[in-house]
Design goal:
The complex is a heterodimer of chains A (52) and B (316). Chain A contains three helices and no strands. Chain A has 52 residues and is mostly helical. The mean pLDDT of chain A is 86. In chain B, helix 1 packs antiparallel against helix 2, helix 5 packs parallel to helix 7 and helix 12 runs antiparallel to helix 13. The chains are: A mainly alpha (52), B mainly alpha (316).
Chain lengths: 52, 316
Amino acid sequence: AVGSADWHRVVPSEWVPVISRDVARQQRDSAQPPFSDAYLNGMPAKRRKLMS
Amino acid sequence: MASGRGVQRVLAKLQKSLDEGNYYEAHQMYRTLYFRYNGQSKFTEAIDLLYNGSLGLLNAKQFASGTDLALLLVETLDKSSTKPSSETLEKLGKLHSLMEKDSVERPTFVGAAVRWSSAEQKFGHPELHKYLAHNLWLERSYSESRYHYVRSNDGEECASMLIEYQITAGFPSEVDLFIAQTVMQCLCLKNKLTANSCFVSYTQQHPQVESGPPFVRPLLNFLWLLLLACDGGTVAVFTILVEQYQPTLRRDPTYNEYLDRIGQLFFGVPPPRSNNPSGMIGNLLSSLFSADDEDETEEEADVINIASNATAFDLD
């Protein structure tokens, strides 16, 4: 992608390994399972209605 | 109008009624005295009377009459333009703790007290929110407790409550989501100190969070870096964080909406082109920023909140 590594120069240099590792890690993440009621209760009312 | 002697006589009778357990009479006499003080603009006296009366009646488990006096107390604070002080906020917290959990009037009391306390802090006084949150935590009304903690100044206590809530009622897949939701809501309310201390305590104390930073879970790293960026970070740094963590942020569709708001508040990102708050985002934010609106229907509440929101957003 165009300028895919440009961000390396923008963020503090000590962040680069952390973010890079997380970019790779996120590719392996599986889909989010359904939320618990406890978690849904923290959402604003309108969104909660749409999610459940 | 009533002479001082008249007041003394009623006070003596009042004490007698209380001693004899005639709470109905006592309640009526509290009201009588309140109207006299009020008529003479003796607000300090009225406030003391109503607090002591409410406290005494609630302690005697006279919930309806105790709460009635508590509502009059808030009304008087409001009418007399009394400024919130630590002492008064603590007293309101005390009365709240004695009211019945499922009382119909308690939400009315909370709404009125928060409104009165928001003269200078637009979402309500953080000290009052802390007392309310603490009482609700003891009752295990976790979700309501969370609402008040994100508006309080006690991030550490918020984290302890949140850990207990997550472990007892959340799923293991939500360990990082619980803190993300709370941190982002605090930031949307411009409550950065609470966001920060809550994040630090939660990640240090939650038994399922591995030591960090950096953390094993990308979402926790995102929050850690976002909080750092909120202290003088540039819009470019903010944008990169939001881009690089998109797969994680999409786990909960509300996160990108919170982040739009956080971008505006902390990084000077302009609001979206269509400034029309009637869409999803307007509704989402308005219900987050609303005061306690449990006594309104949702539709009414949305209209009111959108209207008040327009000003709330501009005042910084």
